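@channel sequence for tomorrow's demo:
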Amino acid sequence: MEAANDQETTSTSLAHILAADSPIFSDESSKKAKQQKTNVSTDRLPGPFYADNLQINKDNVNDLVRLADKYHAKDCMTKCIQFLKEILNVDSVCFVLDVAWGSSWMVLAAVHGLCIDIVYEHFDAVIETRGFSTCRPGTLQTILSQHPSSRHEFNVVDAVVKWAQNACVKNGIDSTNPQHLRKAIGANFNLIDFGAMTEIDFFTCQLEHRLLSEHEIGELVDKMSDKK
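C-alpha cells (generated this afternoon):
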C-alpha cells in the first residue's frame, strides 16, 4: 500500500484483491485471471474489484468496505481499514466513524479507539468540523458521549443545532422550528449536559435556540441553584 499526497491509497495487487481469500469469489478466480480487463462486471461480481489497480479513497471506501464484508474478503477489508487509519485526523475523524458505523463490527472495532483518542484530545475542534455537522446519528452519539475537561457545553449546543439543521434540510423539514430540531436530535439530546453551563450561557443558549420547554428550564434552574 502506498499513500499519495492526496491521501489516496493505491493497491497494486492485480485482479484478485477479493478472490484471494473470499470463498465466494474463489470459484471465479481462474475465469477472472484470464480476462485481465480494467472493469469486469457481472451480476454477482462488482467491476471495480477487478480493476488492474484498486484505488481506495474517500469516495469509494464506504462501498468497498460493505462489499468486502458481504463477500468475506479479508484482504480487501484489511486494506480499507488501513486506509481509514492513514487518513485519520481531526478533520476526518467523523468521516471515519461514519464509515465504521455504516459497515461491519470489524471496521468499528479497528478504528473506534483511535477515533475516541482524537475526539477526546481535540473535542472542540472536532465538533466544529464540517464532518461533524453532517455525520451519522451513531457518530453524533459517539462524540457526545465523550466528556474531556476541554468540553464546553455552550459550544456543544451550537454544534448539535447545526447538525440538526442540516438533518432537517436533508429531509425537507423546516430547520427553523425548534421542535423539528429536537426531533432530529432525538435521544442524543440527553447527551447534552445543560447543567454544566453557567446560568448566563444557559439562558443565552435557550434564547438563541429555544430547545427546552418551560418545565425543562425550571428543572435545570433548580439544579443549578442546588449547586451554589
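heads up for whoever presents: Residues 1-21, 29-45 have pLDDT under 50 and may be disordered.
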